[in-house]
Design brief:
Elements lengths: L19 H15 L16 E6 L5 H12 L3 E6 L11 H9 L5 E6 L4 H8 L3 E7 L5 H15 L6 E5 L6 H12 L3 E5 L15 E3 L2 H5 L4 E4 L15 H8 L3 H4 L7 E3 L12 H4 L6 H23 L26
Parallel strand pairs: 1-2, 1-3, 3-4, 5-6, 5-8, 6-7, 8-9
Length: about 325
């Protein structure tokens, strides 16, 4: 990796614009933040004085909590805004809401919205850096990044790995971001699911397409299960939950087709007994809780890189900047 790489982007809107060295820079920076969670005082002054607004218009537990915790651990000043408590319920436009928030001089705005493209629209109009926390069924870049960190920490690499992503492909923003990232880092990706949950242009996503779970699992190093997103379905896409689990639910018997050292992932929330059996979700191959832990470190890294780029102190590939010490040095010590 290029050791002189510097982060210069104002926003993180998706995986598509990033090249492999930029992705590796985020992952390397996240590695340096992982140890913060193991300290007696889980807080560092790295982003003291920076303002972050969390703007969530869809339900979220993991992503929102993860961002909030990342902000607190970096000592940023954060504010939460949800659709139900915003002026949007009084008829204000999303852009007016965002520009009013911009007038409060935040450094970063994190947005989740049900419509694809909303973060991109705001990024063009706001001075603050914008982080896409999920836009419809389009992208979820920080989820793909935390998945990549989890894979790399368990497998030691991503290049050359055989990855299967299984489930509700059509309605998943996670799958789109993951395919792009894994392709950029040299993995071999297969997607599998019912034909009714596969987009018409599935082959254009950049992965091998399968409609048979057993075939998709054969010899895979990584198996990533997706939630059946019933709230996005405009009609019933499977006869029943029982039928779906029978055909595409991950069980121990089916997992035996994968590599001996396979890891099982899930972005959450899980529907146990629908896409994954409980004994698999809680079994030795599962790294699902590691994904959650790694998510905080990845979001710390993204917040750090974007906020530092905004001040002109762009970090290098080692997590070091012109104005900030290395992640393990004084700026990240436990004093607050």
């Amino acid at each position: 990796m290029n050791e002189t790489l510097r982060w210069t982007r104002k926003d993180l809107l998706g995986i598509a614009p990033l090249d492999a060295p930029e992705i590796e820079l985020i992952l390397d920076t996240a590695e340096s933040f992982l140890e913060v969670a193991e300290r007696p005082i889980k807080k560092v002054p790295t982003l003291r004085g920076k303002g972050v607004i969390n703007l969530f218009f869809e339900p979220s537990t993991r992503t929102r909590s993860s961002f909030e915790l990342a902000e607190k651990r970096l000592s940023a000043d954060s504010m939460n805004v949800s659709a139900s408590t915003s002026a949007l319920v009084k008829g204000e436009s999303l852009l007016d809401t965002a520009t009013n928030l911009q007038a409060m001089s935040p450094d970063l705005i994190i947005i989740r919205h049900q419509h694809p493209g909303v973060p991109h629209m705001l990024a063009k109009r706001l001075e603050a850096g914008v982080i896409n926390a999920g836009d419809g069924a389009h992208e979820h870049p920080t989820q793909a990044l935390l998945d990549a960190l989890t894979i790399r920490r368990n497998k030691g690499r991503i290049k050359g790995l055989r990855v299967a992503i299984i489930g509700d492909i059509e309605h998943s923003r996670v799958v789109r971001s993951n395919i792009q990232l894994l392709n950029k880092l040299g993995a071999e990706v297969t997607i599998a699911g019912p034909r009714s949950m596969m987009p018409a242009a599935a082959h254009a996503l950049g992965a091998t397409v399968s409609y048979d779970l057993d075939e998709a699992l054969e010899g895979r190093d990584v198996v990533m299960m997706l939630r059946t997103q019933l709230e996005r379905h405009k009609r019933s896409l499977v006869p029943s939950v029982r039928e779906y689990f029978k055909l595409f639910g991950l069980t121990h018997a089916r997992l035996a087709r994968a590599a001996d050292d396979v890891i099982v992932m899930h972005p959450g929330p899980m529907n146990r007994g629908t896409e994954i059996a409980s004994d698999v979700a809680d079994g030795p191959a599962s790294v699902i809780l590691e994904q959650v832990a790694n998510g905080v470190a990845v979001r710390m890294a993204v917040l750090y890189l974007l906020s530092t780029a905004a001040t002109g102190a762009a970090p290098t590939a080692a997590g070091q900047s012109d104005k900030e010490p290395h992640a393990g040095d004084g700026a990240h010590r436990g004093e607050s």
